[in-house]
Fold this sequence. Notes:
Blueprint: H1 2-5, H2 8-16, H3 28-37, H4 45-70
Helix pairs in contact: 2-4, 3-4
Amino acid sequence: MRDIADNWKIVILLCLTLGMAPFFPEPHIWGKLKWIAGGAVGMKAMDWFDVLLHGFPFVLLLRLSILKISGKLN
């Protein structure tokens, strides 16, 4: 599993597919983040799970970037 989480190509592919889907009328994660920024009024457990699901690839990308910058990743 660690090999997958450390693979730039796979992580970027996850960000572009799972992280951004569905794409129209706007990326799903973007709509959820705007909702949270607006106070998250009316968000239910399913909406929070949705944020975690669509946001996880970006967490992996951030982790990979930090490891690369700190020199802990070849």
